[in-house]
Amino acid sequence: MLLESLTPEQEAHIEVVKNYWLSKLFTNGVKEIKKDVLEEKIVWMYQLCGYGAPKIVYSESPEDAQRIAREATGEEGYHEFSSYGNVSDYGWVSFYDYFTQIGVINDENFNKYRELIDSNVYDMIQFDEMCIVVPLPSFISRDNSLKLHNED
């Protein structure tokens, strides 16, 4: 379906989708990981990339994920976080989520990926046979102009 313009309802829905994705990150409080969905989608993502189902390990924070990665690999130093399947995908996922919601697109793989991102995952460290999951933070501090900031 090709759109040349949006209806007033479709234009109003832009704010709904935008606010949904922004609130996932910027609303303080514990955001439980939707483990059933997340684990199913991680297995799907690994299989899509040609790997078998990984062992999924949950961490408490990015720092904890690094500790787990060092223990699992026996390698000191910093282990790279994922370049996909994390909070940095909110922008483009929200864009395509909007067009999915108004009926312009409906892609099975995107829908599965959106569920993975929407499961309250913050980041992951991905190895061939193990995936370390970091949950969304329970507290984000911002200043009056909404920039990340905390003097404490």
What are the key terms here?
mainly alpha; 3-stranded mixed beta sheet
How would you concisely characterize the structure shown here?
This protein has 152 residues and is mainly α. Helix content is 44%, strand content 11%.
Structural write-up:
This protein is mostly helical. Helix content is 44%, strand content 11%. Helix 2 (35-48) packs across helix 5 (108-117). The model has no long low-confidence stretch (mean pLDDT 93).
Layout of secondary structure:
Elements: H1 8-26, H2 35-48, E1 55-58, H3 62-73, H4 90-101, H5 108-117, E2 121-126, E3 130-135
Parallel strand pairs: 1-3
Antiparallel strand pairs: 2-3
Structural category:
mainly alpha
Query: Care to count the β-strands?
Result: 3
Strand count, sense and barrel status of the largest sheet are: 3 strands, mixed
Mean pLDDT: 93
How much of the polypeptide forms β-strand, as a percent range?
A: 5-15%
- Binned, the helix content reads 40-55%
Strand order of the largest sheet: 1-3-2
Work out the helix count: 5
Radius of gyration of CA atoms, rounded to a whole number: 17 Å
Report the span from N to C terminus: 51 Å
Poorly predicted runs: none
Shape: flat
Order of helices and strands: HHEHHHEE
